Amino acid sequence: MKTLLVFFLTGLILVGIQAHAQNDFWMPTSGLQSGYIWAMDVAPSGSVFAGGDKGIFRSTDNGSSWAVSGLTATAVFDVRSKGNGHLFAATSSGIARSVDDGDSWMPTGFNQPIMRAVAFRPSENTLYAGGNGGIVMKSEDEGTTWDTIQAGGDFATDVEGLAVGSDSTLYAGTYGSSVWRTTDNGQSWQLVNTGMTTSGVVSMAIIRRGPLQNDILFAGTNGWIFRSDNRGDTWTQVGLDNQTTIYDLKVDGGTVWAATGLGIYKSADEGQTWQAFNQNLTDSLFMRSVAVDGKVYAGANGNGVYRSSISTDYWERVGVPYAYVYSFAAWPAAGRVLAGTNDSIFVSDDNGATWKRSNAGLSGRFAHVFTVYPGNPVLYCGLTTGVYQSSDAGDNWQPTPAQPSNKNISALQLNAAGDVFAGTGNALFRTTDGGQTWERIHTGLVDSNIVSISLDPSGQDLYVGTWLGGVFRSTDNGDSWTAFNGGTNWYDPSVQHFAVDTAGNYLYAGTSGNGVYRTRLDSADWQQVVSGMGNGGYQSITGLAIGRNGDLYAATADSGVYRSSDQGDNWSQVNTGLRSLNITALDTAASGYLYVGTNGNVIHRSTDVYTGIHSNVRVTTSLFLYPNPAIDQVAIVVDLPHGCSHATLKVYNLLGEQVTDIYGGALPEGTRAFTWNAGGMPAGVYLVKLETDARSWYGKVVVR
Fold it and tell me: What are the φ and ψ backbone dihedral angles of 645, each rounded to 5 degrees?
């Protein structure tokens, strides 16, 4: 027997979101960033742990939100709680342990790759670990020292599952030589597979009945579930007749749960009969792990974690899955960041420390784009199923009362008057009444395949980027459009993103293959600005953002993020800390942090504050009216970038007649709200006029 002595180094602790190099530009945020969930367990503390291809994640609120627990540089194949805050994980780098309920993780020093299974001897400190090549290790001091009790030998194949009986008998399930048993701590092993019709054992579990009765042993294989009530001497097939692989088995009292390639199965009679527990698992039935503690948690192979009550068989997805991030939105009033993904919407209220799903009221999963305007209490999101709105910062959603004729929304823009513009693959739409009606606006638009929309700093001019026609501008709220290309041959099919530099009076356009272009806002003198970008500037731009000091950031599809400090003339990469250079989205938050979405690794955040957004830096006066349409009271929100000595706020009908005088006097910089009681007014459209020393602004409101 070989003994391995391990010493723990004081500073060698593996933690979650804080684990990044001190000078890195980026850090991974928390949230369940792995969609491949291969291991799950629930600790006595109530913490739920999910391990997969990107480490271990922990939830302390029954799976509603998740944070990185640790081991982010390794794949985790099994995680088991021993109680008292002690956990052990079998990983691609050996066995790791935590003594503080997952706050931090330490390598045990046994770094034999790859370890796949962990098990404990009841009421003792003895730990077993099995892995590739048929190796089985034993530690009697919780991982400080290890003994090799099986170095491969007769096993020949990988150890995929372990179980320890009431009498300390150890069972090892292998993929290729079925089940082995030792009653003498590994001095000798016996093959026990009578009655098994396959040698491919993938998982094991045991119902311990105590030393006076035989335990009930279960083996999940590549097609069947087998049961033994005589210590493995003989086996009986009890479920899933050659249908799918049984990846995980867990025992909860007399109930046994199975995670399979066809979903979750449950046996309430100690494994004698099995029933599917998949009532509404429509997104994915490929489950790799399961855990039970008052609720049932299922880890999916590429779709994150699902949760159900034990009794109702109704599943919901929880946490951030292995997702493609399309867009971000910052909600300054709540300090919130929203992420739109191919699996719905997720929100963080703590700078990415935790993320939670926020899809109440949504029909559809693909959240393509958001739009928000300072002072406007309504947030809009475009999905493949239409336009949705939220009045509570994204906690709850509802579709706008009417929808554009094409519901596959690719671009959205909200203006100061509350008008919403929605771009689709074949048309541009506008609503001026909160989504009660939509109209197609296309006069002058040569190309109606709308990819992006932007609003200039004055709040008056609109820009749209198209698939084949370049850029178009409207100066009359979208009624008519003119080409804004200045004769430029884009040499590229799609204008995907815009950014507006108010200080330099520049408009930037990111294309789908030819990098970044720049023009003055008052003239269409576009120039390609790609010096320093890799691949000769032939980059697909997936996001643009302006920093507080005027720096311009450009996200790319395969080269990470570039930064320019000279208005695009020269670029350099800022990629340290990124786990992937395949960037899918870029935006800023009210906190000043930059956020990027990466393909599969989900969300990273800048380690420092680099940016500001228009909610913090006022560049134009905004006038917002809500609700719109209104029945009685109308809230009028005024947002001023600079104070003025005298301002008036009045309401007119469409005949130009003043119907009420709301305010007259000085207005300071910032946001101020007024109320107009329109309950006694005839139904119709009214104009709200804000007039200051400098100029006037108008907003429309419909009274019903």
Answer: -75, -25
pLDDT tens column, 339-386: 988 877 888 888 887 788 888 898 877 888 888 877 778 899 999 999
Round to whole Å and give the CA distance between 77 and 119.
Answer: 13
Look at residue 216 and tell me whether its pLDDT is greater than 90: yes
Q: Which of 322, 321, 294 is nearest to 308 (CA)?
A: 294
Residue 100 CA, chain-centre distance (Å), reads: 26
Instruction: Name every residue whose Cβ is closer than 8 Å to that of residue 621 and which is 6 or more positions away in sequence.
Output: 416, 459, 638, 639, 640, 641, 690, 692, 697
- The DSSP 8-state label assigned to residue 480 in this structure reads S
Number of helices followed by number of strands (H, E) in the chain: 0, 64
The yes-or-no verdict on residue 423 having pLDDT over 60 is: yes
Please choose, from the candidates 325, 358, 323, the residue with its C-alpha nearest in 3D space to the C-alpha of residue 35: 323
DSSP-derived secondary structure letter, 351: T
Question: Sheet holding 506-511: strands in order across?
Answer: 495-501, 506-511, 516-520, 527-528
Residues 6+ apart with CB under 8 A from 10: none
Phi/psi of residue 334, nearest 5 degrees: -105, 0
| DSSP conformation class of 23 | T
**One-letter identity of residue 438:** W
Distance CA 475, CA 464 (A): 12
| Length of the chain as a residue count | 704
Average pLDDT over every residue of 477-499: 84
- Distance, in Å, from the CA atom of 344 to the CA atom of 325, rounded to the nearest integer, reads 10
Cβ atoms of 245 and 287 within 8 Å: the answer is no
Instruction: Give pLDDT tens digits for 105-158.
Output: 988 866 677 888 889 886 678 899 988 888 899 988 888 888 888 877 777 689
Q: Which residue has the higher pLDDT, 543 or 284?
A: 543
Strand order through the sheet with 450-455: 450-455, 462-466, 471-474, 482-483
| Residue type at 240 in one-letter notation | L
Residue listed under structure tokens 């794949």: 75
Question: DSSP code of 360?
Answer: B
Find tokens 């108010």 and name the residue: 502
The average pLDDT across 46-57 equals 89
pLDDT tops 80 at residue 473: yes
**What is the amino acid identity at position 593?**
Y
* Range 42-64 burial, b when 16+ CB lie within 10 A, else e: bbeeebbbbbbbbbbbbbbebbe
Query: What is the arrangement of strands in the sheet containing 246-252, beginning at the earlier edge strand?
Result: 246-252, 255-260, 263-267, 275-276
Sign of CA dihedral 111, 148, 98, 81: positive
Which amino acid type is present at position 495? V
Report CA-CA distances (Å) from 688 to 244, 417, 643. Answer: 65, 10, 20
CA distances from 6 to 108, 139, 144, 145 (A): 7, 11, 6, 6
Q: How far is CA 363 from CA 17, 87, 340, 368, 657, in A?
A: 32, 39, 14, 13, 43
Element (H, E) at 696: strand 696-703
Residue 258 to residue 264: CA distance in whole angstroms: 6
Place of tokens 């009216």: 625
User: How far apart, in whole angstroms, are the C-alpha atoms of residue 214 and residue 209?
Assistant: 6
CA distance 614 to 265: 51
pLDDT at 196 over 90: yes
Looking at the chain, the whole-number percentage of residues with pLDDT higher than 70 is 87
